[in-house]
Design a protein that fits this description.
- The complex is a heterodimer of chains A (546) and B (314).
- By secondary structure, chain A is an alpha+beta fold.
- Chain A has helices at residues 2-23, 65-74, 122-133, 169-173, 181-184, 241-249, 260-266, 270-275, 296-299, 301-310, 313-320, 350-359, 389-405, 416-424, 445-448, 466-476, 481-498, and strands at residues 45-50, 79-81, 87-89, 92-97, 103-108, 148-155, 158-163, 204-210, 214-219, 232-237, 255-257, 276-278, 281-282, 285-291, 325-327, 372-373, 376-377, 379-385, 408-414, 431-437, 501-509, 511-514.
- In chain A, the strands form six sheets. In chain A, strands 13, 14, 15, 18, 19, 20 and 21 form a seven-stranded mixed β-sheet that branches. Chain A has a four-stranded mixed β-sheet with strand order 1-10-9-8, with helices on one face. In chain A, strands 4-5-7-6 form a four-stranded antiparallel β-sheet, with helices on one face.
- In chain A, a hairpin with a 5-residue loop joins strand 4 and strand 5.
- By secondary structure, chain B is mainly α.
- Chain B has 16 helices and no strands.
- Chain B has helices spanning 2-19, 26-29, 37-46, 53-65, 80-85, 88-115, 120-134, 137-151, 170-208, 211-218, 223-235, 237-249, 255-260, 266-275, 279-307, 309-313.
- The chains are: A alpha+beta (546), B mainly alpha (314).
- Chains A and B meet through helix 1, strand 10, helix 6 and helix 14 of A and helix 2, helix 3, helix 7, helix 8 and helix 13 of B.
């Protein structure tokens, strides 16, 4: 009796919702006309939606992406990456690397001012360097700067650093946000009010931060690259992704990042297409299946190659990412200069996989469908972390494909802290599915060099190859791009041959942005690189700023 | 009795959270190619994590005695007390409003169900309150957001105020606040109806059977007076106990709820602090929670004795 009524009422709730859904008409504002020719205009507000709040707006003290995203609008570094990922000057007008590669001299732009009106000088750069390397500063970014032997101010607009050894990633490290010396020197940076109220040199000035709710920035009209078109930038924090999606549908948020499911299926309605524009570009990350090379069965490279042949990577992309990604062949992003397309791609080939395995001694003798060697079944566990749906699904698809090849795979999902402490650091895993972000600079010393295999270090699969070691060292000791490319091309060939990881895929970034914003041009660097050039034509502006 | 209990709670909590794998510096350092062993050490000593556990506890306790909760271990390094105090008002407001709403709705439901036992009203409200109890709030919240926020466009979907540079007058701001609070308050109250209404119903049923109710009826009092003057006052006594127990709940927001409505309250703060192993913040919130629990118990005892003369005499 009770149960029946309960059923009826639940049904009613459903019916109401569905009815309203169906009965709804597009009684909205007239459809935005997409005239690309509208001239740029100042004004309007960009409302960004994010699931995480920032933590600290002094960039050297923060490690979360929300803080860095916002800080990148407030601060500048000496150098930056342009849309094609070449290093160009930011606060530095130009720079010079001495012929031995040991000394870098930055010439700063003149007339750049901090948001409080003081001028930026080379003393600010020196202070930023000093505070990063100060052992009392709790920063995670000191490593690159500790390579500096000497840093000095030549004059107000010339800053010079000297290294003990040529160090190519050094140049990019000077993209670090420069901090205002006049507000920080002599004070404890961890207690500085700037972490909640930053003052930088960037295109946007900090205005307000309501914890857990929003961060508001205003255009810096005196910005040295020109006044940004959009007058305000609001970073709204909506921690639940389902709510975030609803807020976006209600058009109270101008940009969100879509999941593959939302990109392919849930944003194809006429209504959403009328008001929003979707973008798609290669993201800076890849997912891989990594082998513990201390495990006897994975020591033979033929076994690793066989597994790579047995996994259909396109199937993973189609099944897990609904097609929004591309096959990874190495540790670099496919549209960058360091990427080498001429490597073995391990296209799906189960026969080749079986042949390689039997060559390595793995044969199905007892006819149970699982390969054996020395009386032991070919069996291993793929480990991945909890909370990452994509990796879990990959593990399941891989499990099925490997079963067809005669390998019995178990899957184990472990909470992150335990995952790192008990399995990665103690090297007790057999195989893992994980991802790396791809840095703009190709230096991968920490992940592949044989000296980085101690506990806590990142070469946790214990990959050791003397040629790769030499190439990694060579690659970071020269500033010439062609020379560096030769090293990194060769590394990619070796990694492809040895398959210490089976590189799976590089997912696409899938942002969706309100259609009133113009001037957005996807490039290898993503879309944010020209944010100050985005604009809304005068007659389409939504938020009128007093 | 209360004071040793309080320190016992802090000691157990402190030990347990340190036993969980992971440490506050992990978020910054793990799987980050730019972090050297030296940097990890630097961070650990900055937070005092390189000292033995009992020393860490004593340091923390010493600060607590001076009412200093210390600084958060997250990268913002702010005072724990600041982080809590900026989030506590909204959580308390929503909890009080929903508690009031629960009392206003659940007590009459309970009384009427008891006086009209097994009637259609009784059965319908029983089903209704149990649906409220059983339905997953996050799911119902999403449905309501779609209905009222997107399809009908009557209410804002999430947050506690609009972006805020369109309104100027006080009335407009107040209306905006109310609109934002409607869904969260209604939904959180919906889930709490079952407890109170069933409780009122059962105590009411018990009281109605007592001899003094029979006496009241025998005196020829009208039914209204019997129920609302004589029975209700006795039936509501145990509700005081439940209210006392609700005191610590006032600062504990629901994580799911706050996350889904994007309300920057205590639930999110606590969840975030546990995930980041932000020990001082976790301890700060636990200490306040423990304090309020003990306070709630004392208050319940006192008000119980005020309301019920029998207890006072003993």
């Amino acid at each position: 009796m009770h149960r029946q009524k309960l059923g009826i009422i639940t049904f009613l709730i459903f019916a109401v919702t569905i009815n309203v859904n169906c009965g709804r008409k597009d009684r909205e504002e007239t459809k935005t006309q997409l005239s690309e020719s509208s001239p740029p205009a100042y004004g309007d507000t960009f409302v960004d939606g994010s699931i995480g709040d920032a933590s600290n707006l002094i960039p050297i003290l923060a490690s979360d992406s929300a803080s860095h995203d916002i800080a990148s609008l407030i601060y500048n570094g000496l150098v930056k990456y342009d849309k094609d990922l070449n290093l160009v000057g930011d606060l530095a007008e130009s720079w010079q690397v001495s012929s031995d590669g040991l000394v870098i001299t930055f010439r700063l732009r003149k007339g750049v001012t901090w948001h409080d009106g003081k001028s930026l000088t080379a003393h600010d750069c020196l202070y930023t360097y000093q505070v990063i390397v100060d052992p009392k500063t709790p920063t995670a970014y000191s490593e690159d700067f500790r390579q500096v032997k000497k840093a000095e101010v030549i004059d107000d607009y010339t800053f010079q650093v000297t290294y003990g050894m040529p160090f190519a990633p050094a140049l990019a490290s000077w993209g670090m946000s420069m901090l205002p010396r006049h507000l920080l020197e002599g004070k404890d940076i961890t207690k500085s009010p700037l972490s909640r109220h930053p003052i930088g040199t960037g295109p946007y000035k900090f205005k307000e931060w309501v914890t857990g709710e929003k961060i508001l920035l205003e255009a810096n009209k005196e910005y040295f690259e020109g006044r940004p078109y959009l007058d305000r930038y609001i970073y709204r924090i909506i921690p639940d992704s389902a709510t975030l999606f609803l807020e976006f549908r209600a058009r109270s948020v101008d940009r969100i990042g879509l999941t593959p499911m939302q990109y392919v299926r849930q944003t194809e309605t006429r209504e959403i297409k009328a008001f929003f524009k979707k973008y798609r570009y290669v993201s800076f990350s890849y997912t891989y299946l990594g082998y513990n090379l201390l495990t006897p069965m994975f020591m033979d490279k033929r076994v690793r190659q066989a597994i790579s042949y047995a996994i259909d990577k396109q199937e993973l992309i189609d099944g897990v990412l609904l097609g929004t990604g591309r096959i990874a062949t190495g540790p670099y992003k496919p549209d960058t200069w360091q990427y080498n397309p001429n490597v073995n791609k391990y296209d799906y080939d189960p026969n080749k996989a079986k042949a390689l395995l039997s060559e390595a001694g793995w044969k199905d003798i007892n006819g149970d469908g699982i390969l054996e060697k020395g009386g032991k079944n070919f069996q291993f566990t793929i480990l991945t972390n909890q909370g990452n749906d994509v990796r879990q699904k990959c593990a399941e698809i891989i499990q099925r494909r490997l079963k067809e090849t005669g390998i019995d795979v178990k899957i184990r999902i472990v909470e992150w802290a335990t995952f790192i402490k008990e399995f990665i650091n103690k090297r007790t895993f057999e195989a893992v599915i994980l991802g790396w972000t791809i840095p703009q600079d190709p230096d991968l010393y920490d992940i592949w060099h044989s000296s980085k295999t101690k506990p806590d270090e990142l070469n946790f699969i214990t990959y050791k190859n003397t040629e790769v070691d030499e190439l990694l060292e060579k690659g970071r000791r020269t500033f010439k791009q062609e020379e560096r490319k030769r090293s990194y091309d060769r590394i990619q060939v070796i990694l492809s041959e040895e398959q210490p990881y089976t590189f799976l895929f590089v997912p696409d970034a899938l942002p969706i942005i309100h259609a009133r914003f113009r001037g957005i041009e996807p490039a290898p660097a993503g879309i944010n690189y020209n944010f100050i050039k985005w604009y809304v034509p005068k007659d389409e502006q939504k938020y009128i700023v007093p | 009795m209360v004071i040793p209990l309080f320190f016992g709670i802090t000691l157990v909590s402190f030990t347990v959270i340190h036993l969980a794998p992971g440490s506050p510096t992990d978020l910054q350092t793990q799987m980050n190619p730019k972090v050297s062993a030296e940097a990890i050490q630097r961070l650990r000593s900055f937070y005092g994590l390189d000292k033995p556990l009992h020393i860490q506890y004593l340091i923390w306790l010493k600060k607590l005695l001076k009412l200093d909760f210390g600084n958060s271990f997250s990268t913002d390094n702010r005072k724990v007390i600041d982080k809590i105090s900026e989030r506590i008002p909204i959580t308390i407001m929503i909890n009080i409003l929903s508690l009031l709403l629960i009392l206003i709705v659940a007590i009459p439901i309970g009384i009427l169900s008891a006086t009209h036992r097994n009637s259609l009203f009784d059965k319908l409200t029983t089903v209704f309150v149990f649906i409220g109890f059983a339905v997953p709030t996050f799911w119902l919240a999403l449905l309501c957001m779609i209905l009222f926020g997107i399809n009908l466009g009557w209410l804002p979907i999430s947050g506690i105020k609009s972006l805020g540079f369109e309104q100027t007058s006080f009335a407009a701001i107040a209306l905006d606040r109310v609109k934002h609070l409607i869904l969260p308050v209604l939904l959180s109250a919906f889930g709490g109806l079952a407890g109170f209404s069933r409780y009122t119903r059962s105590t009411m049923l018990e009281v109605i059977r007592q001899d003094y109710i029979k006496t009241a009826r025998a005196k020829g009092l009208p039914e209204q007076t019997v129920i609302y003057r004589h029975a209700l006052r006795n039936a509501l006594l145990p509700v005081i106990t439940i209210l006392g127990l609700s005191v610590p709940g006032l600062i504990g927001g629901s994580v799911i709820f706050e996350t889904i409505f994007a309300i920057p309250g205590m639930g999110q703060l606590f969840y975030g602090s546990v995930m980041a192993r932000d020990y001082p913040l976790i301890m700060g919130i636990l200490v306040i929670g423990a304090f309020l629990t003990l306070l709630g118990n004392i208050l319940a005892d006192i008000s119980y004795s005020l309301a019920d003369p029998r207890i006072r005499n003993i």
